[in-house]
């Protein structure tokens, strides 16, 4: 049985990166086979690797999610400190209630597919302008949104 495996892999070469290379399409065994690849072992090994990744995510889902939450909180804290660290209206500094407010109301409408974590990364990387953002506590942010929508209703009535 072991000899069969050795013979079966004898046509596979080991690349510089210490990965097996398919003799048919010259792709790595861990990568998806190319269209013209008909080597049965390549497709089987690729499927096994994908399944191992899925099993890992299922087994360690809680650990992975906890890590993501911790990282997101750290990024949010860094951004809040970057933008002043306190509510612009009442001055509260408690990080548990501070929120990032979009001044021009284009938060989710501009990038609906973007998660909060991606938003924070773009700010920290300098790919997102912060001139239209400010920090408000939850109460002040709700009041701000209410006042803004009330003003918009008054403008619509006046027209």
Description:
The chain is mainly alpha-helical. It folds into two domains: 2-59, no CATH class; 72-158, 3-Layer(aba) Sandwich (His-Me finger endonuclease fold), CATH 3.40.1800. It is 53% helix and 9% strand. It has a two-stranded antiparallel sheet with strand order 1-2. A hairpin with a 5-residue loop joins strand 1 (13-14) and strand 2. Helix 3 packs across helix 5.
Strand order of the largest sheet: 1-2
Strand content: 5-15%
The largest sheet, given as strand count, sense and whether it forms a barrel, is:
2 strands, antiparallel
- Average pLDDT rating: 79
Helices, by number, come to: 6
**H and E order:** HEEHHEHHEH
CATH C-level class of the largest domain: Alpha Beta
- CATH-derived topology of the largest domain: His-Me finger endonuclease fold
What is the alpha-carbon Rg in Å?
A: 26 Å
General shape: elongated
Task: Tally the beta strands.
Answer: 4
């Amino acid at each position: 049985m072991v000899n069969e495996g050795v013979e079966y892999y004898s046509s596979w070469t080991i690349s510089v990166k210490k990965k097996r290379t398919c003799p048919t399409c010259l792709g790595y065994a861990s990568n998806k086979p190319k269209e013209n690849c008909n080597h049965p072992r390549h497709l089987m090994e690729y499927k096994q690797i994908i399944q191992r990744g899925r099993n890992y995510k299922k087994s360690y889902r809680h650990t992975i999610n906890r890590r993501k939450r911790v990282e997101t909180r750290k990024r949010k804290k860094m951004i809040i400190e970057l933008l002043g660290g306190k509510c612009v209206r009442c001055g509260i500094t408690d990080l548990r209630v501070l929120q990032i407010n979009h001044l021009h109301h284009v938060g989710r409408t501009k990038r609906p597919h973007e998660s909060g974590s991606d938003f924070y990364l773009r700010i920290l990387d300098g790919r997102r302008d912060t001139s239209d953002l400010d920090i408000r506590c939850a109460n002040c942010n709700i009041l701000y949104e209410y006042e803004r929508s009330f003003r918009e209703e008054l403008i619509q009535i006046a027209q």
